[in-house]
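Quick entry between incubations.
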Amino acid sequence: MRTLTVELGERSYPIHIGSGLLESAGEYLERLGISKKSPHLIVTDDQVGPLYLERLTTSLTASGYRTVHAVVAAGEKSKSLTVFEEVMTSAIEGGLDRRSAVLALGGGVVGDLAGFVAASFMRGVPFIQVPTTILAHDSSVGGKVAVNHRLAKNMIGAFYQPEMVLYDLDTLQTLPIREIRAGLAEMVKHGLIWDAAFTSWCREHAEELLNLKPESLGYGLEMGCAIKAQVVSKDERELGLRAILNLGHTLGHAIEAVGGYGELLHGEAISIGMAASARIAVNRGFAPAELFVETKDLLQRFGLPVALPEHMDEERLIAAMMHDKKFVSQQLVFVLPREIGTVEIVPDVTLDEVRQVIRELKEVDRRV
Amino acid sequence: MRTLTVELGERSYPIHIGSGLLESAGEYLERLGISKKSPHLIVTDDQVGPLYLERLTTSLTASGYRTVHAVVAAGEKSKSLTVFEEVMTSAIEGGLDRRSAVLALGGGVVGDLAGFVAASFMRGVPFIQVPTTILAHDSSVGGKVAVNHRLAKNMIGAFYQPEMVLYDLDTLQTLPIREIRAGLAEMVKHGLIWDAAFTSWCREHAEELLNLKPESLGYGLEMGCAIKAQVVSKDERELGLRAILNLGHTLGHAIEAVGGYGELLHGEAISIGMAASARIAVNRGFAPAELFVETKDLLQRFGLPVALPEHMDEERLIAAMMHDKKFVSQQLVFVLPREIGTVEIVPDVTLDEVRQVIRELKEVDRRV
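Done. Structure below.
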């Protein structure tokens, strides 16, 4: 079992990573001092719930906790205000009060949705993340919670830190390969923004990571969480440094929006976005030419896409970017790589540069 | 012009109270350092907007600010997730970014709604309160923002402090008398929970306050804000002391819910709630018998109701209370008066005591 701490003063919290943690969830809640008088809400989805909800509730019940459940449809479409209101209804009808906790059992969608419920229900109740995907090693750390607006992603939310992250690696064994690849995209991102040595390690262990080899997976996730935790500790509310975590996300979010949040998984979209950032950096002489090739090869080693789907309309992608939170004072903010392990926040990328890279990335498979 | 400060460390903010402040709004925003590059959103309602929106935008435009507007229907029904989403749409379509401010021009409903928009839009942007009612001297101070769930009031929200409160007393001159009375209920409450001398002052100046005599009104609102600010400074997130501000609200919220948020104004409902709290206190020997009579007479001097409408069903009132945030670990929490100016938080009021006071308050007009 690995435990690390996100250092945020009085809002610091532990991340436990290991096997068999669901079976011990009750004890972990006890140690946190979660009330046994009040009922607690577990939010999960209709894919994860059937697999792991009983394991979690059995442990909680054995420790004397009462729980109610809200099971939402799997997928990004549940990150809506409509589903948010339904979960609130479950919380109220379940008799939750101010000492009740909200537990997110699932991937990034469930975590973001349940986290915004925890942040807003009665103006904030305790929140516990129980991630069940690789992608969630990223989203469950750092306190960004949100739902989508039909016009833009993650537009409605809060900074709300969990009391604890309980990361049971056993739950990853049932992930489909496409989800595994997409989840590893965020792990690779953590290397690219912060740590050249970890990036090399990822490249060398791509095969083992894709095969969920426990030792490599545990180490990779711990490193990913640790990098994220370091960045968040230094800038909780994204006033500066934290924005480097958005590598690949400026174009990535636009790709998801234009694809209707269904065509590409988040990790796949940001993989293309990271390739785009490397390409823009090379195009403007910000980074050497081989950086794009290295980045692209690394992502492809994980089976991730780097080409932009031909049918994605340039104008719609640009419009989606202009609705994003990263469009500030009429300028597009991109995170661009200088070299592997080092990025910078560049606030003056022009629309022409973006148009060019959109065209180049539609042809990347043909050209290479 | 009177200025006081809500002391909350790095979240401290000023409350400006005086005449002609709308006309100087642009200068106040400049002094706060609000960006002139980003557009700002003014949220108002269809009663206040026609009266004061132009006055506010003229001042902002003269200082070089760009604004967009969201005008919602007047009344508690706009404190819904549906209207919240509509205001978010206005924010996105208006091109707001992370440096944009949300301004609430209106009473408590607009303040609570716009405040939750400010707290949640892009996970939080600057918020400015421009209250236009007497009631809002209470709701605009302290950072409690929320919308209602159909099952319970203020169930979905945040603690989110404004950057500034700009309280232009000129806007109060157009208030209907019923709104004036209901607004003064919160001023009276601030006396009852904190300050016997101010309560006496309120009693002696009831006539002048109801007639909006500027000197008395300015002093009364400053005192009301100051008491609220002191309490909030000591307990921002309502972990203890702050709950005393809920005097009259346990039953008051239930009355509003059962009346469908339309029959009685918030101030009217908490007036009945304050009478109920005094009665419960007397019934359980917590306070001397004359306390109920004094409280009732004081409220009636302001033309406020103290009797519970006959048609309000006991069981529905009880059920609504059990859905309230003040129902914790299966017990009803009431704020009860010891004497004028002193209250205590009492967590063990029984359902029988509440049933008794509901019956007594339905007959109060007949008995007295």
